[in-house]
Amino acid sequence: MTGHTKGTDTSASVGAVEVEPFRIDTLLKVKQSGGRFSPAMIEFLVRNIAKGTMEDSQIGAWLMAMYIQGLDPKETMHLTSAMKESGTVLTWDPSWVVGDKHSTGGVGDKTSLPLAPALAACGLKVPMISGRGLGHTGGTLDKLESIPGYRVMLSAEEMNVALQKAGCCIVGQTGSIVPADKRMYAVRDITGTIDSLPLIVASIVSKKAAEGLNTLVLDVKYGRGTFMKTQQEAKDLARALVDTANALNMRTTALITNMDTPIGRTIGNALEVEESIECLRGKGSDDLVELVTVLGGELLASSGLTPDAVKGRDAIAMSLKDGSAMRVFCQMLQLQGVSKDTAEQICLEKKGTSSVLPKASHVLNVRATKAGLVTDLDALALAKVSLALGAGRSKSSDAINHAVGIRLTKVVGEGVGIGDTWAEIHYEKEIPQSLVLKVETAITISKNASYVPTSRITERVH
Ligand code: URA
């Protein structure tokens, strides 16, 4: 990944910095020749991107220059700020404490679904703007759209009502929020400039800043099932994200978390909703509950709602146990278009969640060929199978099948006997043998192994 520069004045072009009006072609040369941008230069370029007066070819040239030459932390901050200001910035009742979480994306990552209502139950206002998945599995919005009636697009007014009444909402991004990012991301996608640290930071943080947040927590993942492969890469990204978000007045911390094995026991949209509901009933998998409570604890502490992150973690755990987070979730569903009947069927245990969620027509049990302890599950291999089943999309126009996916009946640390089912593949119509084989080889079962539970959370950056 390309990155931050150290920030020394290297450019003879710096002398031309304050000359107004700028010309786009002249400014492109500043970065091409290794110079630094002033805030005014960056604002000028971003304004022209948002207005549509900068052509895609010019955007591509600018992105490539930034990709190759890098941006120093100040330039990154100014780019982020200019991108945030390129569209609507949401504002809220000044008496509210407003916070959100951002994750860099993983396999089976359904953390947002229980976390937003748990935070709201603890007093934080959470206007969570999420994305659709591009890659192996669906994003948070795809997961929620498995619930009949769920409406991801709310107006700013409707978000305000949801925050007043339920305390949270989970919505998609409207075209008016950071319009510059929409154009820049589309051009990055086709010019090989996605994996640039400052461009990733500006893209992520500008969208969070436009939500009008006081506090932010970041889950920066590394490992097989995500785009950052090493812990050090994740740490470098987290450092830049935290510094930039803090500079934009959001109190921000980040957790570095391992993504080698899937989170929880499900991969696939409706299956993940079902597991999230279990978590909201206080019965989630240990790793999912840990992520929800620790990320939530960080936010409650940085928001001043609890004296420290440990007390914050306890408060989130209590909201899952005492049903208060579930009550918020049920209310949120109704404020986002789900009928009262369906919401109650999903949220009330006696009514049975699974009866309203889409179901795949076939389930294939995958059985263990030896006995022992599960010591590994390859998140990337399982994610690729989920994509091939239809749970994710390879390009943004692909349709998603909400019902398909994989349920893990055994996870790392659990014992398995020969012939025991350790996974269910939920699929439609037929399943190629190659996919079954891919699942079969995603597990490692070790004889005579011992298991020491380890946390996915390996570091905290603040
Ligand atoms: N997510 C974003 O929103 N932007 C990036 O550039 C990378 C991840």
Description of the molecule:
There is one protein chain. With 462 residues, this protein is α/β, with parallel strands linked by helices. The protein has three domains: 5-84, Up-down Bundle (Transferase, Pyrimidine Nucleoside Phosphorylase, Chain A, domain 3); 93-348, Pyrimidine Nucleoside Phosphorylase, Chain A, domain 2 (3-Layer(aba) Sandwich), CATH 3.40.1030.10; 362-446, Pyrimidine nucleoside phosphorylase-like, C-terminal domain (Aldehyde Oxidoreductase, domain 3), CATH 3.90.1170. The chain is 43% helix and 14% strand. The protein has 17 helices and 13 strands. The strands form four sheets. A four-stranded mixed β-sheet has the order 1-4-5-13, with helices on both faces. Strands 6-9-11-7 form a four-stranded antiparallel β-sheet, sandwiched between helices. A three-stranded antiparallel β-sheet has the order 10-8-12, with no helix packed on it. Helix 9 crosses helix 10, helix 14 (324-335) runs antiparallel to helix 15 (340-347) and helix 16 packs antiparallel against helix 17 (433-440). The longest helix has 17 residues, at 231-247. The radius of gyration is 23 Å and the shape is globular. It starts with 23 loop residues before the first helix and ends with a strand. Bound molecules: uracil. Residues 200, 203-204 line the site of uracil.
